[in-house]
Amino acid sequence: MVSKLTHLQVELLEALLESGLTKETLIKALSEAEPYGLQSESQRAINALQSEKGEPCPDIPNLPNGMGEPRVSEDETSDDGEEFTPPIMKELENLSPEEAAHQKAVVERLLQEDPWRVAKMVKSYLQQHNIPQREVVDTTGLNQSHLSQHLNKGTPMKTQKRAALYTWYVRKQREVAQQFTHAGQGILTDEPMGDDLPTKKGRRNRFKWGPASQQILFQAYERQKNPSKEEREALVEECNRAECIQRGVSPSQAQGLGSNLVTEVRVYNWFANRRKEEAFRHKLAMDTFSGPQPTSAPPLTPHSSSSLQPPPALSPSKVHGVRYNQQPASEAESSSSNHHGNSSMVTTQTILQQVSPPGLEPSQNLLSTDTKLVSAPGGTLPPVSTLTALHSLEQSPHTLSQQTQNLIMASLPGVMAIGAGETPSLAPAFTNTGASTLVIGLASTQPQSVPVINSMGSSLTTLQPVQFSQQLHPSYQQPLMQQVQSHINQSPFMATMAQIQNPHALYGPKSEVTQYTHAGLLPQTMVITDTANLSALTNLTPTKQAFTPDSETHTESGMHTPVSQAPTIHLQNQDTTIQHLQPGPRLTSSPAVSSSSLVLYQSSDSTNSHSQLLSSTHNVIETFISTQMASSTQ
Amino acid sequence: MAGKAHRLSTEEREQLLPNLQAVGWKEVEGRDAIFKEFHFKDFNRAFGFMTRVALQAEKLDHHPEWFNVYNKVHITLSTHDCGGLSERDINLASFIEQVAASLS
């Protein structure tokens, strides 16, 4: 009968039973305790007792329906069992009043603090433990949109609702702590982690990969795409250890991860999905490479409000596609395609990854082949959620200059299209978080007005059409070509890195957040809602590219060449600005360009790019590399 | 608070204590209390015993003074309200004996 109980537990159980506690009462008490953990259960039981005595229930904060009702119902059931429960209730009562009072005190304190600060705390806790917002919403009864806005953007929330949130937070922390401490022993009650109300369809939270695990997996994927069972199990251990460490818990308590526990099956599925993803990317690249499509793909996604001219987005995607072909191992891609809004894959997250040099060459060839990229065929999308979309490719430009430009331009938006809610596994430095929406507007390279469109997810903004003069291309092209050719990795990467704002720089006090979301340029070219991702991206830059220092110098030199041209270009293209950003740990601010300008940021000099982004308020896309370089030269 | 908090008279002591003393309860020197040491096989049993006693103590609202080290439990019973032995102590002692017997 003793399954996983220690002898002491058995003894205590027997003691309880012998003390007059019936089995049914005990079981009922335990089942009622499951959703909220034994502590809160004891609180409720006590409240039930108190209510029976006619006393107020001070321990229950005024919670909205989501929390109030279940408690009410549970109170009633507790009342029924009161005859039989007093012993255990009294025992629990000894613990819970203090705990309840303590909890209330903590909640009060949080309520008095700066709401934004607390929101950040809560949000980071959610991220750290990979808790879906849904769980919070279910237990607190808050509106999910409101909650998300409050946590991410600091949208104000009324005190009562915040009280509910903080109460959940405090309780959850204790629950999780209990979970982890019980992890090694096996617990009588089900793990509350991931379960707010098990009665609600008996559902546990959906498993979600944490950034630490994803990093490990991507590295393993690069080594070998098809790991054996032993290797998978090794990865399981490694991932769980990493997840525990991320949560600040000893790795031996991995069971406390609950619904986010990594198992072999999950690892197996992950690898299978990545392989499928890659095959699909390959297929897309093949398609775009082989089949010239005369039609200009209409914007597919609803997000692209402005008409997306065919050429613009294609080449980048194509480039990316080719690159991806070259780099089967490299996982994440910037989904430039996403930007074009063609893809139904908009929701897929794109991962920014290093593109190998060889990939670039063929891509250039590709570009010159005048093939038009197929706009994302709706039905060919693989079911893999994290597939970075190459599919929304469009026709490639005909001229090399265009191509180049497209390349550059495309790479800009290519960086990130991240559907809300999920970030692609950008292996190395990506800190995965919930709603990451990195939207990068793509400036088309067409001489005609080309809309730069962010077709990504929720925070998409449509860019205004970009006017490029032909002159732009050649001059632009050359330095770009130089860069491109000499620093293959660099330019696509940098392009992709463009418009990435360093989340760290931004993700600070509320004002910062507000600021960058308001940045004129940003809505145009890039909206980054998930600073964590950005930071990952920025981290990615240096880690992924060993050549960065070299590239910097190169780029700079390359940059300087067009300097003379830049002004011309600049003058000619006043209305569009594309910003190339290569964020480092901090974005360098290029104050020179007030509007979003296409700038190649060489390195991560802190504030420049950041402020530049922020300061830019015009929908001006111009090739501004040189200027940028000059100003941001580090 | 349960009744029976009055200090035991001499007759009552003569009546009730011998039963307890027969099983090993001793009177404490210098205070009006009774004391006994219990030994168990291991800590689990000892603590199981203590748990049962604790639950009962809560029910009776009368708590022992006790000490535990691993498998040993020293219990001293006395009533604070009356400054000495009372019926509550006798009751609890009886219960303790019952539990100890069932556990050993």
Automatic annotation (TrEMBL), chain A:
Q: Which SUPFAM superfamilies does the protein's record reference? A: Dimerization cofactor of HNF-1 alpha, Homeodomain-like, lambda repressor-like DNA-binding domains
Q: What is its main location?
A: nucleus
The keyword DNA-binding belongs to this UniProt entry's keyword annotation: yes
In this protein, which residues make up the domain named Homeobox?
Answer: 200-281
GO molecular function, a single term? DNA-binding transcription factor activity, RNA polymerase II-specific
Gene Ontology biological process terms in this record: insulin secretion; liver development; pancreas development; positive regulation of DNA-templated transcription
**Which locations, inside or outside the cell, does it occupy?**
Nucleus
> Domain named POU-specific atypical: which ranges?
90-185
Q: Which UniProt keywords apply?
A: Activator, DNA-binding, Homeobox, Nucleus, Transcription, Transcription regulation
Ranges of biased composition (kind: Low complexity) = 329-344
Gene Ontology cellular-component terms listed = nucleus
- Indicate the segments forming the HNF-p1 domain, all copies: 1-32
The entry's DNA-binding region feature spans 202-282
Where does the record place the region Disordered?
52-82, 187-206, 288-344
So what family is this one in? Belongs to the HNF1 homeobox family.
Q: What is this protein called?
A: Hepatocyte nuclear factor 1-alpha
Gene source species: Lonchura striata
What gene is behind this protein?
A: HNF1A
UniProtKB/TrEMBL annotation, chain B:
Q: Is this entry keyworded Nucleus? A: yes
* One matching Pfam family: Pterin_4a
Q: Into which EC class is this enzyme placed?
A: lyase
Q: What is the lineage of its organism?
A: Eukaryota, Metazoa, Chordata, Craniata, Vertebrata
UniProt-listed SUPFAM superfamilies: PCD-like (SSF55248)
Q: Where are the transmembrane segments?
A: none
The name on file for this protein is Pterin-4-alpha-carbinolamine dehydratase
Q: Which GO terms describe its cellular component?
A: cytoplasm; nucleus
